[in-house]
Structures are given as structure tokens and as C-alpha cells.
Specification:
Component of the pyruvate dehydrogenase (PDH) complex, that catalyzes the overall conversion of pyruvate to acetyl-CoA and CO(2). The protein is built from 35 helices and 20 strands. By secondary structure, the protein is α/β, with parallel strands linked by helices.
Length: 889
């Protein structure tokens, strides 16, 4: 849109021009350059002027893109601190063994990926030889998030340094009785090597950002000196399309996480073809990261391009590099030199003249292999620049060729992600290219051999010496010898054991009250890490603000609007609460970092992550699996739980299914407590199991409710039942010959069951025992273990069967969850079984109306109980019809 006089609207138009003549002179100068030297020269001068202004501190918007060339010119590269020829030989062995491992494994049909590591080998090798700090030196070392598809190369390096054997390599992607190698980084399967699981794609970069942030959190709170720990995240350019990959870029720059470096392997290919076929992914990523406030270092071209760029006196080559789309550049890497001369250099006369100065061999070298990510010196310079930059995180965009050194059958081919093996002839060609001393006789049996220069070879000694200087092998996971956490004082738990008397209290508030008291514990209080995505006040956690403080690396640079109130919004550098924005994914990444601090930093932390309704397992279930893979510990709390407790929220929020999703995770211990004292018992047991003398690699999921109810005192002798998942809370009373049944209820549903117990006794002379089912999931887990024991010839009765043994009448289960949740245990219940639940979408209405709609209120339970008894002939069938009419059903 233009204004009436034809001028484009601009922010500058809003400012008074204090010297219109000077402004006109600048504009005229630019016009003159464009007219006499061409628009490309004018654009060049404008970019250099803006760059100069940025360096001089002039407040202008930053340039989001630079030319498609290396950020660090060859003349500015630092001296290489190492033996480049030696590192070339080491990398060659690792390339070979990575390809051999996957090819040999293909005979078992287990698959594997070859092309990713082939493109990224120098990105890893340069880091291992010069930068990545190990865990045997001072501090915690560096944290490495390895790209999942590159794992064969990491295994190959561990084979070269003596940490793996040929037998291990032959067990790639197999369990092999505990002697196998998982397909991707997996701490649960290979806990001495892998520290962070990075598949599913996208979770690695998100977690890396929050890990770097958590390192600062530990440092600022005085728990661990992490000043020398650096987080390195290796990613694919295709992986950057995952929303999690870029979800927290602004957080990283906002908190100035210069302890973080992303290394994006830009081989221009994703799993099925080009990442940006008609565009340029490097330029897109540069703009995205710069716009988010990151420092960007591009390492695109190898040293063979130096001559071409020096000959480019008109800028035509740089312009052409900027305009050629990625898919076309991929094609250049697979076509002959004549094609490149015609289609690349033939674009304009200046390039035609430049190409006349180049031999075919030079063009072939540049377009086929010479990339910044394939040269140790280029990668070394980029890594040095990343570590030297302060005040912001750095991303390195390193261009490579996917399948590099694997031969023309692999390099830059769209299908190379799915190609799992090389032929013997292809291996022989690779041997010649890499210069490896592997004789033809090694292929005599038709199987590609592994290669190793010898345990006492110069290559292995060099590798081990470099790692020793950097603090030991990497990657490596270390569980430091940490003492069990002492049990907190009993006082905090006793407050909930005794109940609330006549005062009503929601179980959400009971949990928050318990944790608040536990955070005051002299021994363990500072190790609690409260995590909440922006709704702390919804959960009654605002009382923690002034006492514990909200973590911010800047402290509090403003006067809070509620400063005169008792529970004001207090931020502090040493704040304990991680009160995130509206990002469940970010909060979950916080939790993972805190939950694994015992291994990453040798500091045991106790995170609890409290979220609203279904926005935990439903939204971030993949990260819950990541937590399990990473052997994390802590408390996940689904607050405002259930499908009917959220008054008026409707189907978008009403959660009746999270316990089903949680049941799929083997590391998650899932509880749905009904009363405050049950929460106290569960949390106490969780602290023992996760942080006691025999610590387990599990985490707890508790659902708590926002419905205020009187909280009873804890009956005697129920602790074991609470932990195992079931105990009889209230025994029914009726006539001696009255029909009987068992009502099993969890969470807030126990209040409906208790009311149904009264109706059954008063209106129908039926006795119902009410059981509190604190964990349908733990009852099922125990029963499954009993079934497994039976297969081994061991006789064991499931706990749920034992608990209900001899209980008269049928069993009717009810919860604020879908019927499948209690139905998990039905096959181990000897009584006739039936269940009620909240299947279907939620709805906006009162709690009472919602419960009537789903058929789980006390009256509905009563009718369902009578129907069960009628089927058994214990009450007349007419009683069911009469009850429906009496209760308005």
C-alpha cells in the first residue's frame, strides 16, 4: 500500500528528518553507485555499511542473512592445534568401520544408516580431538547431544579407542543378552556410553537448550559449578523442520546461553530428498537463528573454493551461489564437469570468463567434495569461534555431502537414507579413497572386514592422548557415587496424615502444601525443583513465589506490580521455581534436565512438574518417553485432573485419558490418590524408591483434583495398600442377610462411591464396601509380574487378587477416567466385574451435570450396582427400574 503521494509507508516516516539535505545526498550516492557500478555493488555497499553499523553499536535491525560463503574467511582461521594427517587417518578408520558395521548387520535384516555419519564425520572427529570435555576432568564435562542417525560413527570411534569390540559391532541393533548396541543413542540400553536419547528427532535440540539453561540454574543457585560445561547439540538440517527444534531459540538467546552450541549438518537432504528443493535451507536457518538472537557461523566451502572466490572480482560467483536452489546444487554433485560449466557458470558472462581459468579437476573438486564440513581446519575454526563468542548461543551451519566418501552410488542420492549396505567393490573403492591398508585377502569370504590399526598404533595413542587431555572418553555417561538423600522430617507428612477436620481442601492444594513443607527441610529442601508452565496461581503455588523465588538469570530488574502484597511475584538469580511461559514442552525439558542431574552433574535434584489437566501426557507424551529413556526421576503431577472436576471447561480440557497414556510407559508409576494422606504416603515412598539407598530409575505420575473436599485422617495400617494400589477404606453396613458388593474407586470418584454406599444401604438394604484404588497401574504391573513368574514355574498371586479374596458379591469400579483405566485389572479380579467411567468428549457444565451425563454420580453408581446384583438374582429386577425412576435417571 502507498500513501497519496506514492511513497511507501515506513517506520522512518514517523521520525522527523532533521537534515533533509543530508538524507538526499545519501540517497543520491546510492543511486549513483547503482547506475554506474550496478545494483549488485549497491547492495554490497549497503550490507557492509549495516555490518559496520552493527559492530560500531549503532542501534539498527541486524542483517538476517549474509552471503552464501563462509563466515570465517581462510585468512582469519586460527592455527590448527593438532596433527591433521593423523586425524585424517583416524577419521578414515572410523568411516570404514561405521559403514562395515551397518553393511554386516544387513544380513540380519536389522538395517542401519550409513550416509549421515559419512557426511558429518569431521564435525564429530574435530570435536572429539579438540573440544569436547570429558567427565574425568574438573567439573561435569560437556554434554553431547549426538544426532541419532550418526550413531554408527560413534560406535566406530569407541571401537578404535578400545571401549567396544568386534563382537559389539556385530551386535549393532541387537540386544545380544546385554552385549548389543542400540540403533540410536539410548541410556537405558547402553548406560555407560549414551547420556542423552536424541530420537525422536527434534527432542535433542529442545532438550539441549534447557540442559544449558539448567546448568546455569545449578550454578546460580550455588549447587554445582558448571562454568566449564558446554552443551553441544548435533542436528540435521531436515530435523530443523520439527517444531521442537526451534521452539526454544528465543529462550536461549534471552538468557544469553553462550554455554550452548548447535551444529547443524547441512547436507541439504532429509530422509527422502532435498530439505528445501527450491530454496536454500542454510539461508533460511541463518535468518531464523539470527532473528532469534543467536550468533551464526557458516562453514560452507572447503579450501578448494579459495581460488574461485579470489578470482571473483565482480561478485558474480557469490551472487550465483546465493541464487542456486539446494536441489540444483545436489544435482551438480552428481553430474559431469561439462554440465556444471553449462548450467552453473553459463548463467552470466562474468562466470563464463571465470570458468575459463579453471581446470576440470578444480571444478570437480569444488562441486563434488569440497565443503566446509569436510575439512578439519574449517570445522576447527568454526568451533573456536563458537566458544569465543560471549553473550549469546551459537549455531554452526556446516555444509556437507550426504554419503561423502561412500562412492558415487551413495553421494547426494535422494535414496541414500534408505541404503543399508555397500558392495565389496564399493568398499574396495572406499578403501582406495581413504588410503586404508586393508588387503584384498581380507574380503576372501565375501564379508567386509572391520579395520583397526592396532591397540598400540600411533593412531590409537594419539586418539587416547587427545581424550586424556580433554578429561577422558566421550561420549560417556557417568553415574557419580552420590549418597542417598536423607529422609525428610516426618513433620511434613504428618500434617496430611491427620486430615483437615471440617475444613475442605482439594488434593491439588494438599500436594502443594506438602511440597512447600518439604522445601523447608534442612537437608533436602534446596534440591526440590518446582516446574510449572505459567499457571502456578491456578494450583495455589503463589505462596512459593516470595519464599523460594522464581529463577531468572537477571534477577529482578523491575518493581513488581504486586510488591506490596504478601505473595508478590519475586524473581531472583538463585530462585528455585522454574515458572515457564506457556510451554509444556519447555517445562518437560526442564524436568528431564533436573531429573537426570544425578548422572549429568552428580547432583541429585527432586523435580516436580505440575501441569493443567490433559496438557501433560497428551501434549508431551514423547518427552515422557525421553525421560524414561534417559533414566530420569521425579514427580509429574497432573493437576485439575479428571474429566468432570473442571467446571465449565468443556471437551478441550477435560482429561479422562491421561492414565491410559501413562500406562504405556514402563518407567512411570501412576497414582490417582483420593485423599491428602494418600498423597503423603505416595510421595514419601517415591522419595525412598527414587532417592534412597536402593534407588530405582523410575518416575512418579500423580493426579490431583481441584475439588475441595473434607480430608479424613489416615486409618491405621493402610500404608502398604496405598503404595500397592488398593485398600478397603470403608466397610459397608446393612442387615445380616443383605446383598453385598465391592465398590472400587480412585481419585475424586471415591466421594461418589461413598454417597452410593449410603444410598444402597438406606434405600435398598444393600451393603457395599468402598475400596480406595490409589493405582490401577501398579495393580496391573504387579499382576503382570505374577503372570511372568508363572511362566518361570513360580507360583505367585497378584496383590489385587489377594486383597479382594473372599470379598462377597460383585466388584464395581468407578473413576473420573475412561473405563479402560480400571478395566486394566479386571482379568485378575475373581469377583464378577463391571466398571463405570467418563468415556467420550468432555462437556461444559457443572460437576453435578457432567457426572450425571457420564453416569458416574452416586445415583448412577447405585443403579449400576443394583443391576449387577439383579443379574446375580440377589435383588429383584424391578429394583433397577424403580431406582432409575427414583433418582431421575
Amino acid at each position: 500500500m502507498t500513501d497519496p503521494v506514492g511513497k511507501l509507508p515506513s517506520e522512518l516516516d514517523q521520525l522527523p528528518d532533521r537534515d533533509a539535505e543530508e538524507t538526499a545526498e545519501w540517497a543520491a550516492s546510492l543511486d549513483a553507485v547503482a547506475e554506474h557500478a550496478g545494483p549488485h555493488r549497491a547492495a554490497y555497499l549497503m550490507r557492509r555499511t549495516l555490518q559496520h553499523a552493527e559492530k560500531a553499536g549503532v542501534a539498527l535491525p541486524r542483517l538476517l542473512e549474509t552471503d552464501y560463503v563462509n563466515t570465517i574467511p581462510t585468512s582469519a582461521e586460527p592455527a590448527f592445534d593438532g596433527d591433521e594427517a593423523m586425524e585424517q587417518r583416524i577419521t578414515a578408520w572410523n568411516r570404514w568401520n561405521a559403514a562395515a558395521m551397518v553393511t554386516r548387520g544387513s544380513k540380519y535384516g536389522v538395517g542401519g544408516h550409513i550416509a549421515t555419519f559419512a557426511s558429518a564425520a569431521w564435525l564429530y572427529e574435530t570435536g572429539f580431538n579438540h573440544f569436547f570435555r570429558g567427565k574425568e576432568g574438573d567439573g561435569s564435562g560437556d554434554q553431547l547431544y549426538i544426532q541419532g542417525h550418526a550413531s554408527p560413527g560413534i560406535y566406530a570411534r569407541a571401537f578404535l579407542d578400545g571401549r567396544l569390540t568386534e563382537a559389539h559391532l556385530d551386535n549393532f541393533r541387537q540386544e545380544a543378552g546385554g552385549n548389543g548396541l542400540p540403533s540410536y543413542p539410548h541410556p537405558r540400553r547402553l548406560p555407560w556410553l549414551w547420556e542423552f536419547p536424541t530420537v525422536s528427532m527434534g527432542l535433542g535440540p529442545l532438550s539441549a537448550i534447557y540442559q544449558a539453561r539448567f546448568n546455569r540454574y545449578l550454578h546460580n543457585r550455588g549447587i554445582k559449578d558448571t562454568a566449564n560445561s558446554h552443551v553441544w547439540a548435533f542436528l540435521g538440517d531436515g530435523e530443523m523442520d520439527e517444531p521442537e527444534s526451534t521452539a526454544a531459540l528465543a529462550l536461549a538467546s534471552r538468557e544469553q546461553l553462550d554455554n550452548l552450541t548447535f551444529v547443524v549438518n547441512c547436507n541439504l537432504q532429509r530422509l527422502d530428498g532435498p530439505v528445501r528443493a527450491n530454496f536454500k535451507i542454510v539461508q533460511e536457518l541463518e535468518a531464523q537463528f539470527r532473528g532469534a538472537g543467536w550468533n551464526v557461523v557458516k562453514s560452507l566451502w572447503g579450501s578448494a573454493w579459495d581460488e574461485l572466490l579470489q578470482l571473483d572480482t565482480t561478485g558474480a560467483l557469490v551472487r550465483r551461489l546465493r541464487e542456486v536452489p539446494d536441489a540444483q546444487f545436489q544435482t551438480y554433485a552428481t553430474r559431469d564437469v561439462a554440465y556444471i560449466r553449462e548450467h552453473f557458470f553459463g548463467a552470466e558472462p562474468a562466470l563464463v570468463e571465470l570458468a575459463k581459468l579453471l581446470t576440470d579437476a578444480k571444478i570437480a573438486e569444488c562441486f563434488y567434495t569440497s565443503r566446509g564440513g569436510h575439512e578439519a581446519r574449517k570445522v576447527y575454526a568454526a568451533y573456536r569461534a563458537a566458544l569465543a563468542h560471549k553473550g549469546a548461543p551459537t549455531v554452526i551451519l556446516a555444509q556437507t555431502v550426504k554419503g561423502y566418501t561412500l562412492g558415487k552410488g551413495f553421494e547426494s542420492k535422494n535414496a541414500n537414507h534408505q541404503m543399508k549396505k555397500l558392495t565389496i567393490d564399493e568398499f574396495k573403492g572406499m578403501r582406495e579413497l581413504l588410503g586404508l591398508p586393508i588387503p584384498d585377502s581380507a574380503f576372501a569370504d565375501g564379508v567386509v572386514p572391520y579395520g583397526h590399526p592396532g591397540a598400540d598404533s600411533a593412531e590409537v595413542r594419539y586418539l587416547q592422548e587427545r581424550r586424556a587431555a580433554l578429561g577422558g572418553p566421550a561420549p560417556a555417561r557417568r553415574v557419580h557415587p552420590v549418597a542417598p538423600l536423607p529422609e525428610p522430617e516426618e513433620r511434613a507428612f504428618k500434617a496430611l496424615y491427620k486430615g483437615s477436620g471440617k475444613q475442605e481442601m482439594a488434593t491439588t492444594m494438599a500436594f502443594v502444601r506438602l511440597v512447600k513443607d518439604l522445601m523447608r527441610d534442612k537437608e533436602t529442601g534446596r534440591r526440590w525443583v518446582p516446574i510449572v508452565p505459567d499457571e502456578a496461581r491456578t494450583f495455589g503455588m503463589e505462596s512459593l513465589f516470595p519464599s523460594a523465588g522464581i529463577y531468572s538469570p537477571l534477577g529482578q530488574t523491575y518493581e513488581p506490580v504486586d510488591r506490596d502484597q504478601l505473595m508478590y511475584y519475586k524473581e531472583a538469580k538463585d530462585g528455585q521455581i522454574l515458572n515457564e511461559g506457556i510451554t509444556e514442552a519447555g517445562a518437560m525439558a526442564d524436568f528431564i534436565a533436573a531429573a537426570t542431574s544425578y548422572s549429568t552433574h552428580g547432583e541429585t535434584m527432586i523435580p516436580f512438574y505440575i501441569f493443567y489437566s490433559m496438557f501433560g501426557w497428551q501434549r508431551t507424551g514423547d518427552q515422557m518417553w525421553q525421560l524414561a529413556d534417559q533414566l530420569g526421576k521425579g514427580f509429574i503431577v497432573g493437576a485439575t485432573a479428571g474429566r468432570t472436576t473442571l467446571t465449565g471447561e468443556g471437551l478441550q480440557h477435560a482429561d479422562g485419558h491421561s492414565h491410559l497414556i501413562a500406562a504405556t510407559n514402563p518407567a512411570s508409576l501412576n497414582y490417582d490418590p483420593a485423599f491428602a494422606y494418600e498423597i503423603a504416603v505416595i510421595v514419601k515412598d517415591g522419595l525412598r524408591r527414587m532417592y534412597g539407598p536402593e534407588a530405582e530409575n523410575v518416575f512418579y505420575y500423580l493426579t490431583v483434583y481441584n475439588e475441595p473436599k473434607p480430608q479424613p485422617a489416615m486409618p491405621e495400617g493402610v500404608e502398604e495398600g496405598i503404595v500397592k494400589g488398593l485398600y478397603r477404606f470403608n466397610e459397608g453396613s446393612a442387615g445380616a442377610d443383605a446383598p453385598r458388593l465391592q465398590l472400587l474407586a480412585s481419585g475424586t470418584a471415591i466421594h461418589w462411591a461413598l454417597e452410593a454406599q449410603r444410598l444402597l444401604a438406606d434405600d435398598w438394604d444393600v451393603a457395599a464396601d468402598v475400596w480406595s484404588a490409589t493405582s490401577w497401574g501398579e495393580l496391573r504391573r504387579d499382576a503382570l509380574e505374577a503372570d511372568e513368574a508363572l511362566l518361570r514355574g513360580e507360583q505367585r498371586t497378584p496383590y489385587v487378587t489377594q486383597a479382594l479374596e473372599g470379598a462377597p458379591g460383585p466388584a464395581l469400579a468407578v473413576s473420573d477416567w475412561m473405563r479402560q483405566v480400571p478395566d486394566q485389572i479386571s482379568q485378575w479380579v475373581e469377583q464378577d466385574w463391571s466398571s463405570l467411567g467418563t468415556d467420550g468428549f468432555g462437556l461444559s457444565d457443572t460437576r453435578e451435570a457432567a457426572r450425571r451425563h457420564f453416569g458416574v454420580d452416586a445415583q448412577s453408581i447405585t443403579v449400576a450396582a443394583l443391576a449387577q446384583l439383579a443379574r446375580r438374582g440377589e435383588v429383584p429386577a424391578s429394583a433397577v427400574k424403580e431406582a432409575r425412576e427414583r433418582y431421575g435417571l
